[in-house]
Amino acid sequence: MSKIRLLLVDDHQIVRAGLRMLFMAEQDMEIVGEVSSGEEALHAVRQLKPDVVLMDVVMAGMSGIEATRRIKEANSEVAVLALTMHEDEHYFFEMLNAGASGYVPKRAAPDDLVDAIRVVSQGNVFLYPTLAKLLVKDFLQRAESGVSPPGEELTAREREVLTCIAEGLTNREIAETLVISAKTVDRHRENIMRKLNLHNRVELVKYAIEKGLINLG
Fold first, then answer.
1. Cα(87)–Cα(94) distance, integer angstroms
2. Are strands 52-55 and 79-84 parallel, antiparallel or unpaired?
3. Which residues are within 8 A (CB) of 73 and not within 5 positions of it... i.e. 6 or more apart?
4. Residue 193: alpha-carbon gap to chain centroid
5. Angle separating helix axes 156-166 and 201-210, nearest 10 degrees
6. Residue 197 Ramachandran class (φ > 0 left, ψ -120 to 50 alpha, else beta)
7. What are the two backbone dihedrals, phi and then psi, of residue 171, each rounded to the nearest 5 degrees?
8. CA separation (Å) from 86 to 20, 68, 212?
9. Domains of the chain, each with CATH number or no CATH
10. Is the four-CA dihedral 146, 147, 149, 151 of positive or negative sign?
11. 6 has which bridge partners?
12. pLDDT digit string (tens) for 101-148?
């Protein structure tokens, strides 16, 4: 069984040392690199081709948000998991908008972080419970103010595709899961976006939560 290739991005050496010890104890994970800045992360992803980038959010120079955005633009297959001391809404939503597949606070239990790595490495979305509540709260506020996606009725297949998108699967993975072509996935994605007036992953996940299409547990 191939191991999950991890790249650690944090500007505190002692944090990286602690993470290194944690992941070295996991038989299905290997650390392929460690860097201390967003700029270094971009270079390391190109050179090392990790499966998961564990990304600090606030660093000197390029922020984790900008680094995540550039990493995902260059290689959408790489999963980025935010690990940070900041649990406020601003950083949370900015990281999701940038393309992060998950968000874990540094106060989380080690087992939660290990689980999060495994979840995002499989193309799924991991949201720490307290932060998932922020997503639901924001969606409900938008719904009460009348700005939630109005939406035409989706077909059964479109609902399946939407669920896969919200869980973080790539077009190729969706095609394989549903046994359809990648072009068909693209067509369904376009129809979903048009019908629901959605524009990015955050809105997709909010809609899927509200409709009970994905399980935050």
1. 12
2. parallel
3. 99
4. 19
5. 120
6. left
7. -55, -40
8. 21, 16, 28
9. 4-128 (3.40.50.2300), 149-210 (1.10.10.10)
10. positive
11. 31, 52
12. 888 988 999 999 999 999 889 877 787 777 666 666 665 565 556 554
The per-residue pLDDT of the chain, averaged, comes to 83
What CA–CA distance (Å, rounded) separates 57 from 69? 12
Contacts of 29 (CB under 8 A, 6+ apart): 3, 4, 6, 23, 114, 117
pTM summary value = 0.69
**φ/ψ of residue 191, rounded to 5:** -65, -40
Place of tokens 């290990």: 114
- C-beta atoms surrounding 88 within 10 Å: 9
- Judge whether 167 and 79 are in contact, CB under 8 Å: no
Instruction: Give the whole-angstrom CA distance, residue 15 versus residue 38.
Output: 16
Q: Say how far apart CA 109 and CA 88 lie, in whole Å.
A: 19
User: What pLDDT score was predicted for residue 110?
Assistant: 93
Residues 6 or more apart whose CB falls under 8 angstroms from that of 141 comprise: none
CA–CA distance, 176 with 163 (Å, rounded to integer) = 14
